[in-house]
Amino acid sequence: xxxxxxxxxxxxxxxxSKLGSEVVxxxxxxxxxIHIDVMDGHFVPNLTIGPEVIKKLRPLxxxxxxxxxxxxxxxxxxxxxxxxxxxxxxxxxxATKDTLNTINLIRNENKKVGISLxxxxxxxxxEKYLDKIDLVLIMSVExxxxxxxxxxxxxxxxxxxKEVISKNxxxxxxxxxxxxxxxxxxxxxxxxxxxxVSGSTIFKENKGDLKKNIEILRKN
Length: 220
What we know:
Blueprint: E1 6-9, H1 19-28, E2 33-39, H2 51-57, E3 64-70, H3 78-84, E4 88-91, H4 99-108, E5 112-117, H5 124-127, E6 135-139, H6 154-167, E7 173-177, H7 184-191, E8 195-198, H8 200-204, H9 210-219
Parallel strand pairs: 1-8, 2-3, 3-4, 4-5, 5-6, 6-7, 7-8
Helix pairs in contact: 2-3, 6-7
């Protein structure tokens, strides 16, 4: 796990009518990853983009595509998203009958593996897989919609997870997503997160100055 803070802007807050140019702008502004939320209207109450859109975006940037699958059953779609150009594929343990099998499906596509925990999901859902994955995504809002308020109660879970990872010397990043802004990003980092996902703050603060907003999140 790197101590350097990485910023993964969520294109859920981008202008969907010009998604390609938004992704290019994020690269120019210094984003480390591009965070892509995939929702199926079933596992979470919203619909977003699928593999075809990711495939069209892929040639526009060399940035890591950090794809968060909020879909169930997830196994049926791993290959589609891998082929579309995802670099990291993150899934929810509640969206699969066999977490280890899903990890292996993603790994067999030569992609990095993430597991996401909803605000009420406990770290025991990921603990026994920490030696087999690359990332844990802590949701600091209920998954399904952008623009929600950060839930500070997830910080304790983040700290505990960081302790387990450090104690066992696991090479696992901790990503946090949901309502991240210029104030609470400091708390998230102190709790152990090293990848921050942010949508509304990056696209809307400081009159939409992406570069400035990314830098503030990185340094605060």
